[in-house]
Amino acid sequence: MDRGPVSMHTCDSAVSLAFTILGKRWNGMIVDALSAGPLSFAALRRSVEGISDAVLSDRLTELAEALLLTRVVEPGPPISVAYTLTPSGEQLVPLLRQLGQWATAHLPQSEEQTER
Amino acid sequence: MDRGPVSMHTCDSAVSLAFTILGKRWNGMIVDALSAGPLSFAALRRSVEGISDAVLSDRLTELAEALLLTRVVEPGPPISVAYTLTPSGEQLVPLLRQLGQWATAHLPQSEEQTER
Fold first, then answer.
1. Is A11–B22 a contact, with Cβ atoms under 8 angstroms apart?
2. Could you give the ipTM of this predicted complex?
3. Residue B87's closest chain A neighbor by CA?
4. Among B51, B57, B98, which Cα is nearest to A17's?
């Protein structure tokens, strides 16, 4: 039964790396929501339906640490804060769109989704 | 302050649909692990490092309900059970690889990842 340490097919490490970020609820949707341009926290929360303030705040910190977005403070008055994609984040957007096309073609759509 | 019901940028619903599946830890990695061919439960568990039996079992049920994989029982003796991608699941694989390439190029790699 022992197939040895090297005969096993292991999950591609690059794909695993991608899903350290994308395999968490909301992260892909937040990047997608920013694809049209910078948004304030409040506008982002409205764009990503169902997310709470606390979770959005956590995710924005995480995505900033992963260098996918930055927090931009524009001097006022009034001071305004917006979140904007970095070039790394922008390069993810076309892949997200391809995933969306794949999902539309292949995933069963729940009643909740089709009602929207 | 009211910007009306239609002026808000909302997250692309196709991308949201994709992340109902991919925005859960492990799902993308399980599909990727099956890209080389059918695997038994035990082989899958070894391929997806860190997943528990209970969570893998849940995820396989979910991915089967989403029609991305099927459970194939081969008559024995001994009877063997394997999980294999459907055509829908197979069409996701090249997108996962592109995400992996993006991640390798753009994501900061943690010490844990680079040690592997």
1. no
2. 0.81
3. A106
4. B98
